Structure formats: C-alpha cells, structure tokens
Amino acid sequence: MHRSLPALLFAFVSSALFAAERPHIVVILVDDMGYGDPGCFNPDSKIETPNIDSLARDGMRFTNAHAPGPLCHMSRYGLMTGRYPFRTDVSVWPREPLIDPDQATLASLAKSQGYRTTMVGKWHLGFEERANESYDRPLVGGPVDRGFDHFFGIRASTDIPPYFYINDRNAVHPPTHRIEANASEGWSPIQGAFWRAGGIAPDLELADVLPHFTDVAISSIQAHPNAEDASPMMLYLAYPAPHTPWLPSPEFTGKSQVDSYGDFVMMVDHEVGRVLDALKVHDMERDTIVIFTSDNGPVWYENDTERFQHDSAGGFRGMKADAWEAGHRMPFIVRWPGHTSVSSSTDHLVCFTDLMATFADIWETGLPQDAGPDSLSFLPALLQQPFEEGTKRTEFVMRAGSKSTMTIREGDWKLITGLGSGGFSKPSPIPPKPGGPTGQLYNLKSDPAETNNVYQDHPDIVQRLQKRMKQIVDDGRSR
Length: 479
Prior knowledge:
Elements: H1 5-14, E1 24-30, H2 50-58, E2 60-66, H3 72-81, H4 106-112, E3 116-122, E4 150-154, E5 166-167, E6 170-171, E7 177-179, E8 198-200, H5 209-223, E9 233-238, H6 259-281, E10 288-294, H7 302-308, E11 329-335, E12 344-346, E13 350-351, H8 354-362, H9 379-383, E14 395-399, E15 406-410, E16 413-416, E17 440-443, H10 459-475
Parallel strand pairs: 1-9, 1-10, 2-12, 2-13, 3-4, 3-9
Antiparallel strand pairs: 2-11, 4-5, 5-6, 7-8, 10-11, 14-15, 15-16, 16-17
Helix pairs in contact: 5-6
C-alpha cells in the first residue's frame, strides 16, 4: 500500500514511541573507485584498504550492485531520488537543480521519519546559478532545499571550477581567486593531479578537501545527542575522491604499489576509517547502518593495468562512463550490527535507486506512489530472508555516458543498444557493418567480462529485452 507524504508524517507522529528502533544511517559514497580497488572485492588488489575491508568483514558484500548511471551526477541523482537518471535532463546541473522542489529524496523521506539529516561533501546535482555568478548570494536548490537539515560541501568535483566551500546555502568564501589548470606527466589528460582552471576561494586548498570533509563529518557525529530519546541521525558523506585530482598527503605518498592513484585510494580508505572510529568512540557503532559504495567506475586504462599489474576494474570490461560492467558495477557493502551476517555476501541485483525503498522497508512505512519510481527494497537480501513474490529486483535500465547508448539487464542477460563502450573507453561508438550486429548482447553468468557478443545468435532475446526496455522508459517508472 502506498501512502502520501502527509500520511508518512502522521505515521511518524503516531509511532514516536518506536523511534528508538530506528537505526542511525551513514551512507559513504566515494568517487571513481573501481570494483577491483578494495581488497575485499579483489584479492589481487595492489592497494591496501583495511578500513573498507573491515566493513566487509563485519557486514555484507553485494557483488552485483550497480550505479544507476556511470557518471557522477547521474549516479547521485538515482541514489538521492530512487529514480533512473535517464528520466531527466542531467546535463543542466551546472545551472539548474536536477531534483525538483517537490520530489521525494532519501533525506526528505528520512526527515518525515524523524531523522536529523546532514550531508557533507560533493553535491553535483545543481543549484540555481546564473552566468558569471559571483556566489555572494544564497545558492538555492541544493541539499538543504531537498531534505537535508545541514550541508557542508562543494558544488561538484575538485577538478571542476569554481572551487569553494558551501555551508547550507552560502559560500563560506566566494571564489575570488584564480587557479591555473594542472596535469600530470605520465598519465592521460584526465588522470593524475588534473584540475581545470577557474575561480577558487582563498580558504580552499584542493589537497585539503578530502580530510576536511572527514573533519566535518566527525564533528557532526560528535555533536549528535546520544540520549535514547534523541532523533536518529542520517549522514550522507559524499567524498570527491579518488576522483581527480589525485592528491595523496605526504603520509600516503609512495606507500602503494600503484603510484599516485593507489596512494590516494589508501588515503580515502584512511578517511573512511576515521569516520568508523568516530562512530565507535561516540558509542553509535552498534546502532548504525553503514553503507559504503562508489558512484561509478574508475578512470583506468588497459595500459594502466599492464604497467602496475593492478586491475581497478576487477576483471570487468571498461571504465567510468561506459555501458560495460566496469562503468557501473560497484563495490557495495552494508554493515548493520545484529542484522547483517558478518563476512557475508550476496549476488542479489541491486541498483543505487533501491536505497529509498530499502530504508522505507526498514522503517516499516510504505513509499508514496510518486516517490522512488525505480526503487525496490533489498532488505530481504540484507537479512538473508526470502522475497515476497514480485518484489525482487531482476532487471535494471541505464543510460551510458553517451546519450544514445542504453542498456538493460534482465537476469543473466545484458543488452546494449549500440556498439562500442558508449562512454570513455575507445572506441565509444562503432558504426555497424553491413550484415553485422547493431548492438551487444552478453550472458553475464557465462561471460562476465563481456567478451563474446551473442547479439545475432539470440534475436528473440534481443527483441524481448528491447520491448521491455521501451516499456520501462515509456511508463516513467519500474516499481
């Protein structure tokens, strides 16, 4: 049964006695980390990730979890709204909010259930901005206008200017200074210590952003009341790393076997560990669901794998922006003491859009009809319980970095509507040859690396998947 937002608010008021049963929630979203980077997903990883590995040791790994889009803003839109990002024009984010004012989000749903909601880090879902913006006025349409009580962060990546901190709706200091572009020798133009030229605030150093966000997140945890009758906490910590620029601190420089990228991943892992320690010290660890994942695949080429003997993609094909698996199959871990089995794993199909329905399931409240249109609860998988008929995710649809390339996953089958990666890997588009396939079809059970295109061998499956994908796109919802 679906309930309206007012009904959800009433449900919260009428069930206040049960608020103590609602766990704190910490969602940690890192940026451009590959499936093969954490040791708990890739035993052959050349990068040490003890803190991320500890979450897997104490919780559940999802080995078949997918970003709703293989780029930063697409992925975040799906995670926040429970809606596939191909359903909106994500390209407008530099000037307009991607999330509509009346659209339900993870944060607004949590607030309706009595949570105190905080976001720290990279938003990348747009504000109301003007050309030649001076940033001396409030920025509207961001996190605090979409369900969060408090926000401290940046508008996008640390390689996309202007660079400045935002506190709720206001620039801490406007980007009145200028920084010149930078690149790293020995890497591609979009790897290494790469950033674009543009405005920068006088109080911001790019190398300090990652640890500063950890400091703010820890302060938020420490400030949360620990009384039994206190409101539960939701913290969304969106790190802008290991996305470029790769800027490991001296403590980590040269410590990995994978040059500056590996060093920076080690630093990210260290920052995650600081947050986990804060939960433990503040006596919140046992009452907190921690979800760890990455927004999309890494910027990691085949020659990088060869020269470092480290496969950031974890054996999958492609990288960030691609329709191929490495673009969107992500490390995904849930630690919920007393609920998730320790050192467990599942191959249940998950999309980030599913967080909304899963949280609603945990809170034992229905989603409003217009909320999370592409969100399905994975709580039974988390608790290792059977799904009710018709509630288990068996498919998902995604648009790749190329606007013309769509993909649908149904069971073991995956259909890509064009040839090539559809993203950053070359070649991205490949013109069909006369009499050749016009798309790609893979059986991921027998061919997880997507090496054998069987598009022309199974025209019936191609037709069925095309029809189903069109239906999901046209219906405006899949839940």
